[in-house]
Design a protein that fits this description.
Structural class: alpha+beta
Strand content: 25-35%
Radius of gyration: 26 Å
Order of helices and strands: HHEHEEEEEEEEEEEEHHHEHHEE
Distance between the termini: 80 Å
Length: 284
Amino acid sequence: MNRNLFKLSTIALISLTLGSRVNSETAESNNSNPAVANAQGQATLNLVANGEDFVRQGFVTKDGWTMSFERLDVNLAEVTAYQIDGAFEPTETDTLDGLEYQEKVSLVDTPQVIDLAEGEADAAPILVADAEVTPGLYNAMAWQIDTAGADSPLAGKTMVMQGTATKDDQTINFDISLDRPIQYLCGEYVGDERKGIVEADSPGEIETTFHFDHVFGDAETSADEAINVDALGFEPLAQLASNDSLTIDDATLTQQLSAEDQEKLTKAIIGLGHVGEGHCAVIE
């Protein structure tokens, strides 16, 4: 072989080897640097709110009232999603400051009023927010139903339910407002499909789910099931109506409901928050 050609070939081989080594080391460095790795691998996580078919289609309560919602507003606040190693089962003794997580993303900083009754009967859950996140499994979520500020249409309230309730030949127009702030901590979504999985080329989704059958019960479920035994139903509220109209706030409910019914309502409102069928813990 020509001596000069041999030298050029050797130099090229050395350069190629060094270049490969540098590229490999750079890749390893980037992967160990979260800021760089995240910048190279961002994806989208969507947050939806779901009042389920109960509020979009109407339903019959445990005591025979047919409910139809015109609006069902909740003041949703401080929604944060987490990636936590292993299966996460929240308890009432957990604190947000004590969570050990790999990733954390804020999805709602400024409270938003969400009308859970919005849309057609078969409408998809309501898109609340989205964010660019690091891919992975978001298997924990914290969120609040909070008292709305003075500039909000729900000022001074956490929730307003408006619609009609019909039984036999009586129809009651109701407007029920509550002010009961709640902080939820939830694990992974439980349902027919798995949620919270985010890939670089495929957006993920997490869901705040509201189970209003916990408040009113469900005529399609056996009367001795817990969902009906523990629910308030609508009859105690119907007894407070005047001239087929019920406009009532939390303070008046506290005064006029029996102690037993007040306890049922309190527990039912606390039990509203889920992630699909997955239960959430109420924390301080």
